[in-house]
From TrEMBL:
Gene name in the database record: def
Protein family membership: Belongs to the polypeptide deformylase family.
Pfam families: Pep_deformylase
Name of this protein: Peptide deformylase
Organism: Algoriphagus aestuariicola
Record keywords, A-Z: Hydrolase, Iron, Metal-binding, Protein biosynthesis
Cofactor(s) annotated in UniProt: Fe(2+)
Active site: E140
Length: 184
């Protein structure tokens, strides 16, 4: 099943998501999240974006890399993740979000992280990620905390996208996937 994606302005995107009870069968939800992400050509999708305020996201960072890249992407689900540490060099990368179509902005984040999470079989993992995979994880993890990439923009950069954000909330945009607009 492909879910509609919640657009910017919906309060669920600003809420801290709830932890999921260990052992809960999430296989159908995770499959649907992969299908929804793929349908929208996304590299990541967090549960709040399909109107479910729980701590789960899926990513496919391989789409951001090609065979010439040294880094290999991953396609994976993260349940109840905790970023334990972020380190390495800060660098800027232009991010976008399926909930905020037509808006992109350079965001600065550290290039490495260590994360603890449950995989889809409820095995507890602790792993280090870097590069594009780390970047996608940081963006999706923020969704579980109620943080959007545009929240990092300040001053002029923030003002320049303000009217575009209102357009997104009103559905005055065109996307190839279905969305839920809070102001329409
Ligand atoms: Ni996003």
């Amino acid at each position: 099943m492909i879910y509609p994606i919640v657009a910017y302005g919906n309060p669920i995107l600003k809420k801290e998501a709830e932890e999921i009870t260990e052992g809960t069968d999430l296989s159908a939800l995770i499959n649907d999240m992969y299908a929804t992400m793929d349908h929208a050509n996304g590299v990541g999708l967090a549960a709040p974006q399909i109107n479910q305020s729980v701590r789960l996201f899926v990513i496919d960072s391989s789409l951001m890399l090609d065979e010439n890249d040294e880094e290999k992407g991953i396609r994976r689900a993260f349940i109840n993740p905790i970023i334990l540490d972020e380190y390495g060099d800060d660098y800027g990368f232009e991010e976008g979000c399926l909930s905020i179509p037509e808006v992109r902005a350079e965001i600065i984040r550290p290039d490495k992280l260590t994360i603890e999470y449950f995989d889809e079989n409820w095995n507890l993992k602790e792993e280090e990620f870097s590069g594009m995979t780390a970047r996608v994880i940081q963006h999706e993890y923020d969704h579980l905390e109620g943080i959007l990439f545009v929240d990092y923009l300040k001053g002029l950069k923030k003002r320049l996208i303000q009217s575009k954000l209102i357009d997104v909330s009103k559905g005055k945009i065109s996307t190839d996937y279905r969305m839920i607009y809070p102001l329409r």
